[in-house]
Amino acid sequence: MKESIIKEFDFLWQYLDYWAEVDRNYPALKFRGEEISYGKFKDFADRLAASLVKVGVKKGDRVATILPMSPEYAYTFVACSKVGAICVPMDVRYRAAELRGFLGHARPKVVIALDSFQENDIKSTLAEIKSEIGNPEVFFLNSEPYFKDLLEGEPLRDSNSTTTTQSPDEDILIIFTGGTTGVPKATLLSHKNVISMAIGELKSILSYLGREERMRSLVHLPPSHVGGTTELFSVGLINGSKMVLIDHWRPDIVLKELSEERIPFFGGVSTMFALIFSIAAGSNLTLPPVELLVTAGEKLNPELLKRMASWCEKIGVGYGSTETAGFATFSLPDDPAEKFVEGYVGVPFEGVEIKIVNEKGEEVEEGEVGEVLVKGPMVSKGYFNQPEETEKGFLDGFWISGDLGYMKGNELYIVGRKKEVIRVGSYTVLPSEVEEVAMKNPKVAIAAAFGIPHEIYGEVVWLVIVPKPGESVAEEEIIEACKKELADFKIPKKILIRESIPLTRLGKADRIKLKEIILGELSE
Prior knowledge:
The protein is of the alpha/beta class. The protein has three domains: about 15-165, Rossmann fold (3-Layer(aba) Sandwich); about 190-420, Rossmann fold (3-Layer(aba) Sandwich); about 420-524, GMP Synthetase, Chain A, domain 3. It has 14 helices and 25 strands. Helix 2 (about 40-55) packs across helix 3 (about 70-85). It is globular and about 70 Å long. The N and C termini lie far apart (about 70 Å).
C-alpha cells in the first residue's frame, strides 16, 4: 500500500525539516524569478531562529512583520514556530494609526519590516510610534539594522531553543480579523489549529485533483490575512510544494505564474475572479489551463460561476474564517456546481462539528436558517488579551461565526452575515440577493448592496455598481431587472455608479466601509 504524502506532525516547523531531509535541493520558494531550495529555506529559518533567541525572544513573545508575501516572511514565520514565539504579520499598506493600534496591542519583542512600500514610508512610521508599542528591536530589509544579518549566525540547535518543550496547543500566529465585522480582534492560532486546517484543505484539493503529489502552488494573498499564511503558505509547506510567492495582488502576474509554472489549482474570492475575467477580456489574455478553481468568502452568483466553469471544469468551495485558521468545510469532487449559487459551501472536515442556532442559542431544525457555530481542532482558543471579545466570540469550544446558514444533512449552506443583513421594516434582505440580480448584467464588474437608515422602514436598500472597463451602466436598467426578480422591499431605493469601491484585504467588496463612506458623503 502506497504511503500517504500527507504527514501528521505536531509542530509546523517539522514539515520544513522533513522536506529538507527528503530532498535539500527541491525548490521551496520562487520569488521574483529566484528559486530557494528546501535546504536553504531550512538553513535560513534555523539561523533566524537562533538570532531571535540571541536578541531575547522567548516562548510566547511576539515577533511582528511588516512584509509582503516573500521569502523573508516565510523564514520569520517558521523561525517563530521553532522558538515558540508568536508571529504577528501586518499589512505593508498599514499607516501610523493602524500600526499604532495593532502593534500597541500585540507589544512585539521584535519587528521585521520593509523600509517602504509604494508611497508608505514604513521606517519613518516605526520611528514615530516605537516608544508607544513597547520599544521593540526593529530590523529592516534594505537599511540598518539589517534583517540579513540575522541570517548569518549559527543555526538553531535543540540545546539553545524551546523546541524540545513545545506543545501543539501553543500559539504561533496572531491574525487580526478583517474590517467587515467591527473592531479588529487579535485571533490566536496554534500549531494544532494551523496544521489541522491545512491538512483538511490539502486532502480536499488532492481529492479534486485525483492524485497525491507534491504540487506547485501560488501564494498570492498577504501574510496578514489567514488566506495567505495558512490557506496558501502553510498548505504548501505541509505538501512540500514549490510555492510561487507574489508580493501584492496583480491579476496579470497571477495569470503569468499560473501559466509558466503549470500550477494545477487557483483559489480566490469572487471579486478576484471577476477582475481576472475583466482584465483577460479587455487585453485578450488567454486564461492558462488549471485543473481546479477554489473560491470562498462570498456566495457565487450564477454569471460568475458560468465564467469560472468556462475556464475550468472542476470548481470547489469552502467555508471558514480567521478563527478557524481558514477552512472548516469543503465541497466534494462530485458536487454539482449549481449548488454553489444556493450558498452551499461543502461538508465539515474530519473532527469538525457545526451547529445552527436561533437568537436564544437553541439548535434549530434541519433546513432552518440560524447562526453558524463551528467546533473542531482548527478553531482558535480566543483572542490575544481580549477576554471580553473571547467570551462573546466563543462558547463551549464553538466559534460563534456571525454568519447565517442552514444544514441539509451534513452539507452547510451560507446565506449571509448577521451584521450585513438589511432590515426593511419587518423584512430581512440579504445583500447577496440584490447583488446577484445586478451581476447578471454583463456590463457590471462589481455590485455591493447595503442598508441606509430610513425614518419609516428603519433601513432601505442602496446599491453601488462598478461597471466593467469601457462600459456604462444606467441606473434604470438595474432597477428594472430588480423589479422583475425581487420583492418590492428588496428593490434598491438608490443606485450609485462608481469607478471603484473599497475592498477588504482579501479583495471582497467591503460593504461596511462603503456604507460608512456613503453616509459620510450624505452628512457633508
